[in-house]
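Record now logged underneath.
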Amino acid sequence: MFFSKLQKILFLIVLFLTSTANAANQKPIANAGENQIVGFSEKITLSAEKSIDNDGVIKSYRWLQTKGTRVKLSNAKIATPTFTSPQKTTTLVFKVTVTDNKKASSRATVEIVVSEKLVKSKLNDTGITFCSDGAFNVQGCNIPSYPRQDAEFGRDVEHSDNKDGHAGFSFSKIGEKGEALPLDAKSWVCVKDNVSRLIWENKTANNAKNLYSFSDTQKLVSEQNQKKLCGLSNWRLPQIQELQNIVDYSFPFPEPAIDLTFFPNATNQIYWSATSYAKNDADAWGIYFDDGRVFEQTKTTQAAIRLIANLEPENKRQRYEIIENGDEVLDTQTGLIWRRCVEGMRWNGKSCEGQVFGAMLIESLERAAMQAKLTGKNWRLPNIKELASLVDFSQAKLAIDSNVFPQTPNDQFWSSSPYAMDAFYGWVTHFYYGSSYYTYLEDTGVVRLVR
């Protein structure tokens, strides 16, 4: 067959345009959704709805389970298949393949941890919505040299509506008899923390600045229980981690480190907790509400008080569950998964061994980012509240459960939370004392990763 010169030219043009179009096609970007921690026999929905194709449309989805006890997906060829979680502690991994209208495809995975003991997390976020670049705290994160900071994860990202509390906090106003009040109520007697499900005393202008020694606190507790403040008679001093849970670490001194919209008469004094200092019976734990530092205080110290009451019975389930052949720990109270060994060490089947990785914050954040990339798991540095949640204040030697977290160094550990007053500082927790405080970014800290 012979072609005219014009036909050849047209053929070459069509061939060029076709090859150019094919070469220019970009692969879709697969997204398998957020990792989940779920209980037994729950209906679970997977989601690839956040997958995108920048130069076309996604035409098909295909899900495949790659790890864990086998489950039956309701429809593996849609963006949102469902399944029922097994009645067994296991880690399930699913892979989704997304294909666009030009038959280009990409893949992503998601991890579902199944645990019988899981309860809904009662841990508040820190309120921090800024990131440190080592010199300044800036609203724009995604800083390459300081990756994956506090502000890029958690409730203050996912629930950032400030109507019921600043940046991820969620509070309700409660009346004198325990009745729920609207958010725009002008006066209220108590505050319900909707995350922890605990009730807090709202200090008045008359009693907000009153200070007490530790021995005087029980008198105030008895008085409020006799009055049945907000209809309750189970008022008490908060435990130290309960008190830290309402700290908002984003407010710089001299503002109190708490949401003044719901706690309008708060001061930046030291506040007592009910937690004794295990190393010395003459001391108890308190929080400096000028910035959120957690330190022990001599019980003769004059400090402020904010009482707390429970609305539901205390959870007495086993807290920690060892998973992933001993390499990881699921905290059933917070829903967090921790590496059992600190960075630089590894689980050998019986304990943690190796050389501890200690570094400045910049190197620690980079280490966490590298581990997330290498393992495909969303490892990061914990924020200061997550890190402090591991402190066991009943331990006199090392303030952590050493059976669950063996060979924990007697040292300070980095969090991903910058210090609001000065970006050259960051928050740490020391696992010998149990205290939380800020230190220079160029100081050395240990790293335990979380996801």
Q: What stands out?
A: The chain is about 15% helix and 25% strand. Residues 227 and 233 are 8 Å apart (CA to CA).
